[in-house]
Recover the amino acids of this structure.
């Protein structure tokens, strides 16, 4: 993984904090918006620095939650009105469109 700067971390944190209730974003969407090389960088940031963020609103592009947090993550998302079917978030119904930086 390439070097992650404090500015990278803060961009990802700001994006995650901005995800509205009832919507989700993917690791890839966040990586693209933060101009990072890979969704894995977002995953690393989320693992190391997201306790105070709505971490449950970040999911994989398949709509599947993090395996080790699946029950907890899906329960929190359902409470917010996020559509879940067969253990997956229905992205086409709740994917957050990240505002452009322009």
């Amino acid at each position: 993984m390439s070097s992650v700067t404090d500015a990278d971390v803060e961009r990802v944190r700001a994006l995650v904090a901005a995800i509205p209730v009832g919507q989700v974003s993917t690791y890839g969407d966040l990586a693209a918006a933060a101009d990072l090389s890979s969704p894995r960088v977002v995953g690393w940031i989320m693992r190391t620095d997201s306790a105070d963020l709505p971490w449950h609103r970040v999911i994989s592009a398949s709509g599947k939650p993090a395996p080790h947090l699946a029950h907890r993550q899906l329960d929190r998302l359902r409470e917010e009105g996020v559509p879940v079917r067969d253990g997956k978030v229905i992205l086409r119904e709740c994917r957050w469109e990240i505002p452009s930086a322009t």
Notes: The chain has a mean pLDDT of 94. The two ends are 28 Å apart (CA to CA). Strands lie at 25-26, 58-59, 84-85, 88-89. The chain is about 45% helix and 10% strand.
